[in-house]
Amino acid sequence: MSDASHASVVWRGTAASVALLVIFLAAWQWGPGLLRIPPFIIPPLSMVAEEAVRMWHVSALATHTGITAAEVLAGFILGSLLGAFIGYLIGMSPTAELALSPYILALQIAPKVAFAPLFILWMGFTVYPKILVAILIVFFPVMVNVLTAIRTVDPDLINLARAFKATRAQIFWKIEFPASLPPLFAGLRIGSTLAVVGVVVGELVGGNMGLGYLLSFGEGQANTAMVFVAILMLTLVGGIAYLLVILIEQRVLHYLPKRAMSGF
Amino acid sequence: MSDVIRLEYRDVTMRFAQGAGHLTAVQGVSIAVRDGDVVSLIGPSGCGKSTLLNIGSGLTAPSEGQAFVDGERVEGPNAHVAFMLQKDLLLPWRTVIENVMFGVEIQGVAPAERRRRAQALLENLKLADFAGHYPHQLSGGMRQRVALARTLAVDPTVLLLDEPFSAVDAQTRMVLQRELAQTLKRAGKTALLITHDLIEAVTLSDRVLVMSRRPGRIIDEIAIDIPDRDDPLKRRTHPRVTEYVNRLMDRLDIGAPEAA
Ligand SMILES: Nc1ncnc2c1ncn2[C@@H]1O[C@H](COP(=O)(O)OP(=O)(O)OP(=O)(O)O)[C@@H](O)[C@H]1O
Ligand SMILES: [Mg+2]
């Protein structure tokens, strides 16, 4: 594709996106009224916006969002580090793989969010159980992607390095590690969105902070607009986390052909 | 060219475990390549050519017999040999020049010297303008030339080449063949070239060895008596080429009904 035609595709795509957004917002604002859907089922846009302002002043929306964002960040970073570390370890050591794989498989099958009540029993209504659920849920996609990447490195590449008398450490740092980065980032992208899920479930289950708490509080008050605001803020937090991963990815994987990388 | 033997296989047999028993890939192969010679190895698919290359480069140990490079018994990877495969094996996250420096970097050559060598090779192979490009920005032929530069950068005495040009188009292949021939001649390198292209075998080599079906043995050896080993394009037009190719086809049973 030429640069010019690529540019025009980008322009048309962006224009269509913006148009869709406008239509969606308009439908949200006036659709419920026209279809006679009561505001406690779907509050129109303006009502949600008003609620957001109210919550900002009265319900410490910013603080709750900040707490959730911090938990997401902590859970995501720790879960990714742990997932990557175990992925590399198992990828490089068949013994570790044999020893650990049944447990990892069992843990992978177990629904991670079901651990939330348990963690709260252990750690109380603090931020820690939420971070822990996030760690657990982020761990798997990152670990699996790293492991698959290490396993699928072209053996001829390893042989090439071996023929130059590379040490095991050189093979790792010069071949396996860089080769694992694209799948690692694919895992991080998934992990960044899952971290939000983990944290929200933790907050829903117990405690009085974070957007998950506002979610259940709003539900208890039958305040649909409040629930909508919490959902929007959660999406925002997840979106920012995802965007951060993509920004780092574009710096690290700058050598990949441009069109191989996109926002998704 | 001297009479020093640079690469030698002495009665090499290779068996692979297969199911309960084993599969004999190569059987009692002896090859000796003198300094500066280019020897081609041809044979049916699966007859053990690549296996011999792996043994020569020290990546696999033979079941029986020994390989020698530069008079030393091959007991593992060593700096005297370097190989090049059909796949270019370029690292996508390294630029062209960084790829060329890959081997010397592993071998611990000082950074300034690495760069000097890589630069010189890129000049020779007409890649100097692409030093900062990434592999995905290059054509298949250029990538293969980068792979050749990486192989030469470690300054091996013996090059093992496994179908190095079989993945590039016919015209690029001819250009690459000439570049390889000139480089080998200029640097006085010894090479073992595995190929399925009979004309390539004849035009690039001093000798051609023919292997049998598995278990692979050497069944014929043809000395190529045509001048200009450094100019395969010129050699191509020599009348004796057809004669050699016919003999090779004959030895390989190409054209015989059961070989199809
Ligand atoms: N690591 C291995 N384990 C088991 N069998 C192997 C191994 N490597 C090669 N073989 C077997 O040895 C035989 C020779 O393989 P090799 O790759 O050397 O053939 P080749 O002559 O290079 O073939 P081609 O022309 O198709 O490249 C084949 O039957 C192959 O299946
Ligand atoms: Mg082969």
Summarize the structure.
The complex is a heterodimer of chains A (264) and B (260). With 264 residues, chain A is mainly α.
What is the CATH architecture annotation of the largest domain in chain B? 3-Layer(aba) Sandwich
- Return the CATH architecture of the largest domain in chain A: Orthogonal Bundle
Q: What's the helical proportion of residues of chain B?
A: 25-40%
User: How many helical elements of chain B?
Assistant: 9
The pLDDT mean of chain A sits at 90
Strand elements of chain A, count: 0
State the shape of chain B. globular
Task: Specify the CATH homologous superfamily of the largest domain in chain A.
Answer: MetI-like
Structural class, judged by helices and strands of chain B?
alpha/beta
Describe the structure.
Helices cover 80% and strands 0% of the residues of chain A. Chain A is an all-alpha fold. In chain A, α8 packs parallel to α9. Chain A starts with a helix and ends in a 12-residue tail after the last helix. The mean pLDDT of chain A is 90. Chain B has helices at residues 49-56, 96-100, 102-106, 111-124, 140-153, 170-187, 198-204, 232-236, 240-251; strands at 5-18, 21-34, 38-42, 64-69, 72-73, 81-84, 158-162, 190-194, 207-211, 218-223. In chain B, the strands form two sheets. A six-stranded mixed β-sheet of chain B has the order 6-7-8-3-9-10, sandwiched between helices. In chain B, α4 packs across α5 (140-153), α5 (140-153) runs parallel beside α6 and α7 crosses α9 (240-251). The model of chain B has no long low-confidence stretch (mean pLDDT 92). The interface between A and B is medium-sized, with 20 and 25 residues. Bound molecules: adenosine-5'-triphosphate and magnesium ion. Residues 16, 23, 25, 43, 45-51, 214 of chain B line the site of adenosine-5'-triphosphate (ATP).
